[in-house]
Amino acid sequence: METWKETELKNADLVVDRVYEGGRAGNASDDPLPPLVGVSNQGGFRYIGNKGRPRLIVLTSTMKDVDWPDNLDRESGVFTYFSDNKKPGHELHDTRRFGNQLLRDLFDRRHRSADSRNEVPPIFLFTNTGAWRDVQFLGLVVPGVENLDANGDLVAVWKLKEGMRFQNYQAKFTVLDDRTVQKGWIADVLQGNPMSKHCPESWRRWVETGSYKPLKAPRVVEYRTREEQLPSDDFGIRVITAIQSRFSDEPVKFEACATKIAEMMMPQIASIDITRPTRDGGRDAIGRYKVGEGASAVLVDFALEAKCYSATNGVGVKELSRLISRLRHRQFGVLVTTSYVSLQAYQEIKEDQHPIVIIAAADVVALLKRSGINSDEKLNLWLSGF
User: How many CA atoms lie within 13 A of 176 on its CB side?
Assistant: First the structure.
Protein backbone atom coordinates (compact mmCIF):
# COMPACT_ATOMS: atom_id res chain seq x y z
CA MET A 1 0.00 0.00 0.00
CA GLU A 2 1.50 3.31 -1.11
CA THR A 3 1.93 6.00 1.55
CA TRP A 4 2.59 9.72 1.09
CA LYS A 5 4.31 11.68 3.84
CA GLU A 6 3.07 14.87 5.48
CA THR A 7 5.61 16.99 3.62
CA GLU A 8 4.25 15.82 0.24
CA LEU A 9 0.57 16.56 0.80
CA LYS A 10 0.32 20.04 -0.73
CA ASN A 11 1.29 18.75 -4.18
CA ALA A 12 -0.20 15.26 -3.99
CA ASP A 13 -2.81 13.88 -6.36
CA LEU A 14 -5.55 11.74 -4.84
CA VAL A 15 -4.98 8.10 -5.78
CA VAL A 16 -7.45 5.37 -4.83
CA ASP A 17 -6.28 3.32 -1.81
CA ARG A 18 -3.22 5.52 -1.23
CA VAL A 19 -2.55 6.42 2.42
CA TYR A 20 -1.80 10.04 3.33
CA GLU A 21 0.10 10.56 6.56
CA GLY A 22 -0.64 13.39 8.93
CA GLY A 23 1.57 14.92 11.56
CA ARG A 24 2.70 13.33 14.77
CA ALA A 25 2.18 16.19 17.23
CA GLY A 26 -0.84 14.52 18.79
CA ASN A 27 -3.37 17.30 18.15
CA ALA A 28 -5.80 18.56 15.48
CA SER A 29 -2.98 20.07 13.43
CA ASP A 30 -1.92 16.52 12.48
CA ASP A 31 -4.94 16.19 10.18
CA PRO A 32 -3.69 15.63 6.59
CA LEU A 33 -6.92 16.74 4.90
CA PRO A 34 -6.44 20.55 5.19
CA PRO A 35 -3.18 20.60 3.21
CA LEU A 36 -4.32 17.75 0.95
CA VAL A 37 -7.78 19.01 -0.05
CA GLY A 38 -8.23 22.36 1.69
CA VAL A 39 -11.04 21.47 4.10
CA SER A 40 -11.12 22.11 7.84
CA ASN A 41 -9.60 19.72 10.36
CA GLN A 42 -12.82 18.65 12.09
CA GLY A 43 -15.85 16.50 11.32
CA GLY A 44 -16.72 13.49 9.22
CA PHE A 45 -18.68 15.64 6.74
CA ARG A 46 -16.63 18.66 5.64
CA TYR A 47 -17.20 21.16 2.88
CA ILE A 48 -15.77 24.27 1.27
CA GLY A 49 -18.09 27.09 0.26
CA ASN A 50 -21.63 28.03 1.19
CA LYS A 51 -23.66 25.23 2.81
CA GLY A 52 -26.42 25.87 0.30
CA ARG A 53 -24.02 25.52 -2.63
CA PRO A 54 -20.70 23.94 -1.52
CA ARG A 55 -17.87 23.78 -4.05
CA LEU A 56 -16.32 20.61 -2.60
CA ILE A 57 -17.22 17.99 0.02
CA VAL A 58 -15.10 15.47 1.94
CA LEU A 59 -16.64 12.44 3.63
CA THR A 60 -14.58 10.58 6.22
CA SER A 61 -15.53 7.41 8.08
CA THR A 62 -13.83 5.03 10.47
CA MET A 63 -16.03 2.17 9.13
CA LYS A 64 -16.08 0.88 12.73
CA ASP A 65 -19.24 2.37 14.25
CA VAL A 66 -21.33 -0.68 15.19
CA ASP A 67 -24.47 1.43 15.60
CA TRP A 68 -24.05 3.06 12.19
CA PRO A 69 -22.06 0.64 9.99
CA ASP A 70 -20.75 2.65 7.03
CA ASN A 71 -19.62 0.22 4.36
CA LEU A 72 -17.80 0.22 1.03
CA ASP A 73 -18.66 -2.71 -1.22
CA ARG A 74 -15.56 -2.79 -3.39
CA GLU A 75 -17.02 -5.38 -5.74
CA SER A 76 -19.96 -3.17 -6.73
CA GLY A 77 -18.45 0.26 -6.03
CA VAL A 78 -21.35 1.22 -3.72
CA PHE A 79 -20.70 3.13 -0.49
CA THR A 80 -23.35 3.11 2.25
CA TYR A 81 -23.07 6.11 4.57
CA PHE A 82 -24.93 7.00 7.77
CA SER A 83 -24.97 10.71 8.44
CA ASP A 84 -24.63 12.94 11.50
CA ASN A 85 -27.81 12.55 13.59
CA LYS A 86 -26.56 9.61 15.65
CA LYS A 87 -28.03 10.45 19.07
CA PRO A 88 -31.56 11.18 20.28
CA GLY A 89 -32.67 14.69 21.05
CA HIS A 90 -32.41 16.30 17.62
CA GLU A 91 -34.61 16.57 14.57
CA LEU A 92 -33.33 14.82 11.44
CA HIS A 93 -31.83 17.97 9.89
CA ASP A 94 -30.71 19.60 13.14
CA THR A 95 -27.07 18.51 12.98
CA ARG A 96 -23.70 20.19 13.47
CA ARG A 97 -22.16 21.54 10.27
CA PHE A 98 -25.47 20.90 8.47
CA GLY A 99 -24.44 17.41 7.29
CA ASN A 100 -27.97 16.05 6.90
CA GLN A 101 -29.16 19.18 5.11
CA LEU A 102 -26.27 18.80 2.67
CA LEU A 103 -27.18 15.16 2.07
CA ARG A 104 -30.82 16.04 1.42
CA ASP A 105 -29.82 18.73 -1.06
CA LEU A 106 -27.29 16.50 -2.84
CA PHE A 107 -29.82 13.77 -3.52
CA ASP A 108 -32.52 16.28 -4.42
CA ARG A 109 -30.22 17.71 -7.10
CA ARG A 110 -29.42 14.22 -8.33
CA HIS A 111 -33.11 13.51 -8.98
CA ARG A 112 -34.58 16.92 -9.77
CA SER A 113 -33.38 17.43 -13.35
CA ALA A 114 -30.44 16.96 -15.70
CA ASP A 115 -29.32 20.56 -15.20
CA SER A 116 -29.35 20.25 -11.39
CA ARG A 117 -26.50 17.70 -11.50
CA ASN A 118 -24.24 20.64 -12.32
CA GLU A 119 -24.93 21.86 -8.78
CA VAL A 120 -23.57 18.67 -7.16
CA PRO A 121 -20.01 19.31 -5.95
CA PRO A 122 -17.18 16.75 -6.15
CA ILE A 123 -17.25 14.47 -3.11
CA PHE A 124 -14.02 12.83 -1.92
CA LEU A 125 -14.27 9.74 0.28
CA PHE A 126 -11.65 8.93 2.91
CA THR A 127 -11.36 6.43 5.75
CA ASN A 128 -9.26 6.69 8.88
CA THR A 129 -6.48 4.12 8.98
CA GLY A 130 -6.37 3.91 12.78
CA ALA A 131 -2.79 5.20 12.89
CA TRP A 132 -2.63 8.73 14.26
CA ARG A 133 -4.78 10.88 11.92
CA ASP A 134 -3.64 9.17 8.73
CA VAL A 135 -6.31 8.69 6.05
CA GLN A 136 -6.77 6.49 3.02
CA PHE A 137 -8.45 7.80 -0.13
CA LEU A 138 -11.30 5.52 -1.24
CA GLY A 139 -12.44 7.42 -4.29
CA LEU A 140 -14.46 10.17 -5.94
CA VAL A 141 -18.15 9.56 -5.23
CA VAL A 142 -21.50 10.82 -6.50
CA PRO A 143 -24.93 10.52 -4.87
CA GLY A 144 -27.09 7.58 -5.85
CA VAL A 145 -26.71 4.20 -7.49
CA GLU A 146 -27.60 3.23 -11.06
CA ASN A 147 -30.60 1.05 -10.20
CA LEU A 148 -31.96 2.92 -7.17
CA ASP A 149 -34.66 5.57 -7.46
CA ALA A 150 -35.45 8.45 -5.11
CA ASN A 151 -37.16 6.04 -2.69
CA GLY A 152 -34.07 3.94 -2.16
CA ASP A 153 -30.85 5.94 -2.36
CA LEU A 154 -31.50 8.31 0.58
CA VAL A 155 -33.64 6.86 3.37
CA ALA A 156 -34.46 8.24 6.82
CA VAL A 157 -34.10 5.27 9.19
CA TRP A 158 -35.40 5.06 12.74
CA LYS A 159 -33.24 4.05 15.69
CA LEU A 160 -33.98 3.44 19.35
CA LYS A 161 -31.40 4.54 21.91
CA GLU A 162 -31.76 5.21 25.62
CA GLY A 163 -35.48 4.59 25.23
CA MET A 164 -35.85 7.38 22.66
CA ARG A 165 -36.60 7.15 18.95
CA PHE A 166 -34.85 9.32 16.40
CA GLN A 167 -34.02 9.38 12.70
CA ASN A 168 -30.83 9.50 10.67
CA TYR A 169 -30.08 9.28 6.96
CA GLN A 170 -28.78 6.17 5.22
CA ALA A 171 -27.29 7.29 1.91
CA LYS A 172 -26.03 5.28 -1.06
CA PHE A 173 -23.14 6.68 -3.12
CA THR A 174 -21.32 5.33 -6.16
CA VAL A 175 -17.52 5.38 -6.23
CA LEU A 176 -16.61 6.46 -9.76
CA ASP A 177 -14.07 4.64 -11.91
CA ASP A 178 -11.47 7.39 -11.65
CA ARG A 179 -8.41 6.02 -9.91
CA THR A 180 -6.58 9.36 -9.81
CA VAL A 181 -7.85 12.85 -9.04
CA GLN A 182 -5.33 15.43 -10.15
CA LYS A 183 -4.31 18.21 -7.79
CA GLY A 184 -4.97 20.60 -10.66
CA TRP A 185 -8.65 19.63 -10.71
CA ILE A 186 -9.04 20.31 -7.00
CA ALA A 187 -7.60 23.79 -7.60
CA ASP A 188 -10.01 24.29 -10.52
CA VAL A 189 -12.96 23.18 -8.37
CA LEU A 190 -12.06 25.65 -5.64
CA GLN A 191 -11.94 28.38 -8.31
CA GLY A 192 -15.48 27.44 -9.41
CA ASN A 193 -14.51 25.53 -12.56
CA PRO A 194 -15.26 21.82 -11.93
CA MET A 195 -15.64 21.04 -15.68
CA SER A 196 -12.08 22.09 -16.50
CA LYS A 197 -9.62 20.11 -18.61
CA HIS A 198 -8.47 18.32 -15.47
CA CYS A 199 -11.98 17.00 -14.77
CA PRO A 200 -12.07 13.17 -14.36
CA GLU A 201 -13.86 11.45 -17.23
CA SER A 202 -16.35 9.46 -15.13
CA TRP A 203 -17.33 12.61 -13.25
CA ARG A 204 -17.89 14.55 -16.48
CA ARG A 205 -19.96 11.68 -17.85
CA TRP A 206 -22.17 11.56 -14.76
CA VAL A 207 -22.77 15.32 -14.71
CA GLU A 208 -23.59 15.48 -18.42
CA THR A 209 -25.62 12.27 -18.82
CA GLY A 210 -26.42 10.92 -15.34
CA SER A 211 -24.69 7.68 -16.26
CA TYR A 212 -22.76 5.88 -13.53
CA LYS A 213 -19.44 4.15 -14.17
CA PRO A 214 -18.58 2.58 -10.79
CA LEU A 215 -15.14 1.50 -9.71
CA LYS A 216 -15.63 -2.25 -9.36
CA ALA A 217 -13.02 -4.63 -7.99
CA PRO A 218 -14.14 -8.24 -8.53
CA ARG A 219 -12.54 -10.80 -6.25
CA VAL A 220 -9.58 -12.46 -7.93
CA VAL A 221 -9.96 -15.48 -5.64
CA GLU A 222 -13.61 -16.38 -5.13
CA TYR A 223 -13.12 -18.40 -1.95
CA ARG A 224 -12.36 -16.87 1.43
CA THR A 225 -9.65 -17.86 3.84
CA ARG A 226 -10.35 -19.06 7.37
CA GLU A 227 -9.31 -15.64 8.72
CA GLU A 228 -11.74 -13.85 6.39
CA GLN A 229 -14.62 -16.02 7.59
CA LEU A 230 -14.04 -15.55 11.33
CA PRO A 231 -14.63 -12.32 13.30
CA SER A 232 -11.51 -10.43 14.33
CA ASP A 233 -12.86 -7.85 16.79
CA ASP A 234 -13.74 -8.48 20.44
CA PHE A 235 -17.47 -7.93 20.02
CA GLY A 236 -17.64 -10.27 17.02
CA ILE A 237 -15.85 -12.99 18.94
CA ARG A 238 -18.27 -12.54 21.86
CA VAL A 239 -21.23 -12.81 19.49
CA ILE A 240 -20.11 -16.13 18.05
CA THR A 241 -19.14 -17.48 21.47
CA ALA A 242 -22.57 -16.57 22.85
CA ILE A 243 -24.39 -18.26 19.96
CA GLN A 244 -22.29 -21.41 20.30
CA SER A 245 -22.88 -21.52 24.06
CA ARG A 246 -26.62 -20.99 23.63
CA PHE A 247 -27.02 -24.01 21.35
CA SER A 248 -24.18 -26.29 22.51
CA ASP A 249 -26.56 -28.63 24.37
CA GLU A 250 -29.39 -28.35 21.83
CA PRO A 251 -27.83 -28.02 18.37
CA VAL A 252 -31.17 -28.71 16.68
CA LYS A 253 -32.48 -25.39 18.02
CA PHE A 254 -29.71 -23.60 16.11
CA GLU A 255 -31.67 -24.36 12.95
CA ALA A 256 -34.30 -21.77 13.87
CA CYS A 257 -31.54 -19.24 14.57
CA ALA A 258 -29.88 -20.07 11.25
CA THR A 259 -33.10 -19.46 9.30
CA LYS A 260 -33.42 -16.00 10.87
CA ILE A 261 -29.83 -15.22 9.92
CA ALA A 262 -30.49 -16.35 6.35
CA GLU A 263 -33.52 -14.03 6.17
CA MET A 264 -31.33 -11.14 7.31
CA MET A 265 -28.97 -11.73 4.39
CA MET A 266 -31.68 -12.55 1.85
CA PRO A 267 -34.79 -10.47 2.61
CA GLN A 268 -36.46 -11.78 -0.55
CA ILE A 269 -37.00 -15.17 1.08
CA ALA A 270 -40.73 -15.80 0.65
CA SER A 271 -41.01 -18.82 2.94
CA ILE A 272 -38.76 -21.07 5.00
CA ASP A 273 -39.65 -24.17 7.00
CA ILE A 274 -37.50 -26.22 9.35
CA THR A 275 -37.60 -29.94 8.53
CA ARG A 276 -38.23 -32.69 11.05
CA PRO A 277 -34.89 -33.83 12.55
CA THR A 278 -35.52 -37.52 11.83
CA ARG A 279 -36.70 -37.00 8.27
CA ASP A 280 -34.84 -33.95 6.97
CA GLY A 281 -33.29 -35.65 3.94
CA GLY A 282 -29.98 -33.96 4.69
CA ARG A 283 -31.58 -30.54 4.87
CA ASP A 284 -32.25 -28.60 8.05
CA ALA A 285 -34.71 -26.26 6.33
CA ILE A 286 -36.27 -25.75 2.94
CA GLY A 287 -37.59 -22.54 1.51
CA ARG A 288 -38.48 -20.43 -1.50
CA TYR A 289 -36.69 -17.30 -2.65
CA LYS A 290 -38.52 -14.63 -4.67
CA VAL A 291 -36.76 -13.29 -7.76
CA GLY A 292 -38.38 -10.23 -9.33
CA GLU A 293 -41.36 -8.19 -8.18
CA GLY A 294 -45.14 -8.46 -8.19
CA ALA A 295 -46.83 -10.64 -10.76
CA SER A 296 -43.54 -11.01 -12.67
CA ALA A 297 -41.75 -12.67 -9.73
CA VAL A 298 -40.71 -16.31 -9.73
CA LEU A 299 -40.00 -18.53 -6.72
CA VAL A 300 -36.80 -20.56 -6.54
CA ASP A 301 -36.47 -23.46 -4.09
CA PHE A 302 -33.50 -23.71 -1.75
CA ALA A 303 -32.24 -25.99 1.01
CA LEU A 304 -30.50 -24.78 4.17
CA GLU A 305 -27.95 -26.53 6.35
CA ALA A 306 -27.05 -25.18 9.82
CA LYS A 307 -23.74 -25.97 11.54
CA CYS A 308 -23.14 -24.62 15.05
CA TYR A 309 -19.41 -25.37 15.20
CA SER A 310 -16.61 -23.87 17.26
CA ALA A 311 -14.04 -21.61 15.60
CA THR A 312 -11.52 -24.48 15.69
CA ASN A 313 -13.82 -26.83 13.81
CA GLY A 314 -14.38 -25.88 10.19
CA VAL A 315 -17.09 -27.21 7.88
CA GLY A 316 -15.36 -29.70 5.61
CA VAL A 317 -15.90 -31.49 2.33
CA LYS A 318 -18.00 -34.23 3.91
CA GLU A 319 -20.61 -31.88 5.37
CA LEU A 320 -20.90 -29.78 2.21
CA SER A 321 -21.08 -32.84 0.00
CA ARG A 322 -24.09 -33.92 2.02
CA LEU A 323 -25.87 -30.65 1.30
CA ILE A 324 -24.87 -30.62 -2.38
CA SER A 325 -26.08 -34.18 -2.91
CA ARG A 326 -29.53 -33.30 -1.57
CA LEU A 327 -30.06 -30.32 -3.90
CA ARG A 328 -32.62 -30.96 -6.56
CA HIS A 329 -32.69 -29.56 -10.09
CA ARG A 330 -32.86 -25.75 -10.10
CA GLN A 331 -32.37 -25.51 -6.35
CA PHE A 332 -29.62 -23.69 -4.51
CA GLY A 333 -28.16 -24.27 -1.08
CA VAL A 334 -27.51 -22.08 1.96
CA LEU A 335 -24.96 -22.99 4.62
CA VAL A 336 -25.10 -21.08 7.92
CA THR A 337 -22.26 -21.75 10.34
CA THR A 338 -20.76 -20.18 13.44
CA SER A 339 -17.40 -21.33 12.15
CA TYR A 340 -15.79 -21.36 8.70
CA VAL A 341 -15.65 -23.49 5.57
CA SER A 342 -12.37 -25.29 5.06
CA LEU A 343 -10.20 -24.20 2.16
CA GLN A 344 -10.59 -27.47 0.27
CA ALA A 345 -14.37 -27.44 0.62
CA TYR A 346 -14.60 -23.77 -0.41
CA GLN A 347 -12.40 -24.39 -3.44
CA GLU A 348 -14.54 -27.31 -4.56
CA ILE A 349 -17.71 -25.25 -4.28
CA LYS A 350 -16.31 -22.49 -6.46
CA GLU A 351 -14.40 -24.60 -8.94
CA ASP A 352 -17.34 -26.97 -9.51
CA GLN A 353 -19.74 -24.00 -9.53
CA HIS A 354 -22.12 -25.42 -6.94
CA PRO A 355 -24.89 -22.89 -6.13
CA ILE A 356 -24.18 -22.59 -2.41
CA VAL A 357 -24.50 -19.38 -0.36
CA ILE A 358 -21.95 -19.43 2.47
CA ILE A 359 -22.88 -17.52 5.63
CA ALA A 360 -19.84 -17.92 7.88
CA ALA A 361 -19.18 -16.58 11.39
CA ALA A 362 -17.97 -13.15 10.23
CA ASP A 363 -21.07 -12.80 8.05
CA VAL A 364 -23.30 -13.68 11.01
CA VAL A 365 -21.71 -10.90 13.08
CA ALA A 366 -22.04 -8.35 10.27
CA LEU A 367 -25.70 -9.24 9.68
CA LEU A 368 -26.56 -8.93 13.37
CA LYS A 369 -24.82 -5.55 13.61
CA ARG A 370 -26.67 -4.34 10.53
CA SER A 371 -29.94 -5.38 12.18
CA GLY A 372 -29.17 -3.30 15.26
CA ILE A 373 -27.95 -6.18 17.45
CA ASN A 374 -24.76 -4.41 18.42
CA SER A 375 -24.39 -4.96 22.16
CA ASP A 376 -24.18 -7.94 24.51
CA GLU A 377 -27.54 -7.01 26.02
CA LYS A 378 -29.30 -6.89 22.65
CA LEU A 379 -27.64 -10.13 21.58
CA ASN A 380 -28.78 -11.97 24.71
CA LEU A 381 -32.31 -10.66 24.24
CA TRP A 382 -32.32 -11.82 20.61
CA LEU A 383 -31.00 -15.28 21.50
CA SER A 384 -33.62 -15.69 24.23
CA GLY A 385 -36.23 -15.92 21.47
CA PHE A 386 -34.97 -19.33 20.34
Answer: 23
